[in-house]
Amino acid sequence: MSTPTDRPEPELEEAFDRLVDEGRERLERPMLALVSTGLLGGIDVGFGVLAYLVVKEHTGDTILAGIAFSIGFVALLLARSELFTENFLVPVTAVAARSGTLLGLGRLWVVTLVTNIVGGLLIMWILVTARPDLHPTIVEVGTHYAELGVNGESFALAVLAGAVITLMTRMQHATDNLGVQIIPAILFGSLLAGAELFHCVLDSLFMLGGLLAGADYGLGAAAGAVAWALLGNVVGGVGLVTGIRLLRVPRKVEEERAHPE
User: Of 94, 189, 213, 214, which has fewest CB within 10 angstroms of its CB?
Assistant: First the structure.
């Protein structure tokens, strides 16, 4: 005889099914669509960076600048573009349900990360060219992230960043109402930037912008910081949020594995 704890709540099962279906679609996306979506994601985040830098330059307040940055996450949502760390919950759930492969996940991650950075770099180049008055602020912010170093503090900041974005993704997939989905985009976008968490895409744009504006740190320091942030983001997003949430629907996972589409 089953007990109330034998099966998850119906809402969790429905959410799981939606995640698997969308994850399968992302993993099977053609290369051209994958590249264009990733480029647009980087461009959208780049406009969030522009808002962050303008507000920080005029107010000196990181919290207000973080709120301004959330414009980038609203753009990501409304334009249906994608950020690398948004692909921790949805496609990983599909792979866990055997509705996708690890090879497909690796393809999705690599292409999205690279195109995010390329698209964002384009916006940073235009920004540095158009607004020389922002160079001191760009250098200051970029130097902050480049000098975080490889240590426990920076890794913890990266873990938090990965968890924050994955939790945002989960909340947005709990509803089909676009107006409600905008709320997590604003809240978690503000938290990510305002709390100065360590995010591999966002902070790569800050660091690359700093280099374009004349910062003293080198490209090697920026690349090392991005790699370290990437590792922490994966631990936070996949391990701390996605993995634990999959434990809430073990029967659904097994059912999907037994009857993959």
Answer: 214
Q: Is 74 exposed, middle or buried (0-12, 13-18, 19+ CB in 10 A)?
A: middle
Q: What does the pLDDT look like over 178-230, one tens digit per residue?
A: 999 999 999 999 999 999 999 999 999 999 999 999 999 999 999 999 999 99
Rounded Cα distance, 30 and 166, in Å: 24
Structure letter (DSSP) for residue 133: G
Containing domain of residue 72, as a range? Answer: 10-251
Give the span between the Cα atoms of 4 and 181, in whole angstroms. Answer: 30
Q: What is the C-alpha separation between 146 and 157, in angstroms, rounded? A: 13
Q: How many domains does the chain have?
A: 1
**Does the residue 259 lie in any domain?**
no
The CATH number covering residue 223 comes to 1.20.1080.10
Residue 207: which residues within 8 A CB-CB, separation 6 or more?
A: 142, 145, 146, 215, 217, 222, 225, 226
Residue 4 lies in a domain: no
Determine, yes or no, domain membership for 261.
no
Q: Is residue 257 part of a domain?
A: no
- Tokens (6 digits) for 32: 């051209």
Q: Give residue for tokens 């920026």.
A: 222
Alpha helices in the chain (DSSP H): 10-27, 31-59, 62-79, 90-96, 102-130, 135-146, 152-172, 178-194, 202-212, 219-234, 243-246, 250-258
Cβ atoms < 10 Å from Cβ of 179: 7
User: Given the structure tokens 């808002």, which residue do they identify?
Assistant: 51
Task: Report d(CA 196, CA 46) in Å as an integer.
Answer: 16
pLDDT 10s digits, 33-78: 999 999 999 999 999 999 999 999 999 999 999 999 999 999 999 9
